[in-house]
Amino acid sequence: MAPRPLTSQEIDAALAELPGWEFTEDRLRRTYSFAGHFPAAAMVLHVARIQEEMNHHADLLLGYDSVGVSVNTHSVGGKVTELDVRLARRIEEIAPSHGARP
User: Fold this and answer.
1) Which class of enzymes does this protein belong to (predicted)?
2) Where are the domains positioned within the chain?
3) Which CATH architecture has domain 23-98?
């Protein structure tokens, strides 16, 4: 079954369970902060592995001590779908193990 864009109510409900995430410009976004560059880079590699497993990819921005995540689904015109929410949840699950700061 092809993904479908979520309604604004569905996005709001998902964001209620994703602290630190926001919905802007038809994307789910979050920036994580770390104690230094190595834990941030390790987080990017871990996210890359999850993305390959899911066959769904976010835009990642690696800074010295931060990682920015921005995701939507291109196949539905760049809108947010359940795939994006699932990826965000998976990222939230692993972030603490890399020392992500709130």
Assistant:
1) lyase
2) 23-98
3) 2-Layer Sandwich (3.30)
